[in-house]
């Protein structure tokens, strides 16, 4: 707890940590809805890209946690910029892979009602929420990287 107070000592670090917490929470919400989409019985976990998507989501959550810890200890050139790019790439890749996995289900259950009534529609809607939260987290991360406090922190570490 004392280390966290030291990290959050300056105002820029507080803004950065709040932004990272929002990204972490959105990613966690996306993970929960991603896992809930398998409870309808329409999709089976382990098929298609589900393990890769889960790995990317967990990697993004860990990267966000590392970036909050690295705020105080960042001494290398551009380490926070690289972490921002890495987190954004993981989130966007997760959303894109999830959309690719759900494309057939969207066509069969949402658009044409060909396979309706077997849980596919609910699984697709849960996946839409998951994809949306990943994309919003990525957008928050991109927009946050253009803030003056982020640039000031990068200038201090170089």
Report on this model:
The protein is built from 6 helices and no strands. Helices cover 78% and strands 0% of the residues. Helix 2 (11-36) runs antiparallel to helix 3 (50-73), helix 2 (11-36) packs across helix 6 (148-157) and helix 4 (79-111) packs antiparallel against helix 5 (120-144). It is mainly alpha-helical and 158 residues long. The two termini are 28 Å apart.
List the topology elements:
Elements: H1 2-7, H2 11-36, H3 50-73, H4 79-111, H5 120-144, H6 148-157
In short:
Helix content is 78%, strand content 0%. The protein has helices at 2-7, 11-36, 50-73, 79-111, 120-144, 148-157.
Tell me the Rg in angstroms. Answer: 18 Å
Average predicted local confidence, pLDDT: 81
Instruction: Bin the strand percentage.
Output: under 5%
Task: Give a short account of the largest sheet.
Answer: none
Which spans have pLDDT < 50 for at least 5 consecutive residues?
none
Structural class: mainly alpha
Number of strands: 0
Secondary-structure element pattern, one letter each: HHHHHH
Approximate shape: elongated
| Count, helices | 6
Helical proportion? over 70%
Q: Separation of termini?
A: 28 Å
